[in-house]
Amino acid sequence: MKRRIKIGIVDYKVGNISSCRRALDNLGFYTSMVKNSVDINSKDIILLPGVGSFDLAMESLKENKMDVIIKNTAKDGVPIIGICLGMQILASDSTENTFTKGLDLIPGSIKPISNKNQEIHIGWNQIKLKSELVIPLNKYNKKFFYFNHQYSYVGNKKYIISETNISKDLNIVSIIKNEKVLGFQFHPEKSQKVGHQILKESIMSLCEK
Known about the structure:
Shape: globular
Strand content: 25-35%
Low-confidence stretches: none
Structural class: alpha/beta
Distance between the termini: 18 Å
Radius of gyration: 16 Å
């Protein structure tokens, strides 16, 4: 019988934790909440969910030094997935509310969506992969996922896996990756069957030895 992958979901006082856990449980993974260094031990992969603001999320992580613990966990080769705000705090910094340093696991900055016609991106939209060689994400090129955000990643193109067009002259980054650290700007847990599939296959791929 195949061993169930153990996923540690970081609890840093943001929204969307319960929906992420429910989706992962339904996919057959073993999930538990992570609040300290003891909780994070023996996990196969760490997930950073999130709906909220960058500065408050980082403040919460720093309260019990979870920011340092997560960075050390990544250095040890444990895969990490960030969703929405969870993806954004993987970056180096953000200008949301005030300048705040992030986890710096995927170098780059989180900046407001800057377009005179659109300052917020909500709803279903299509992702367009920068490369079709990114397995297992390649099969999801041009598929639709659910977004809800006002800030987006700006950084080196080598970390950008996909982009999404949100207006006539503006694309935002929808997936970023640096080795075993992966971030989704959209909400796979809210993106019905296709969202659950991309989440499951990404976890399985990142956990391969």
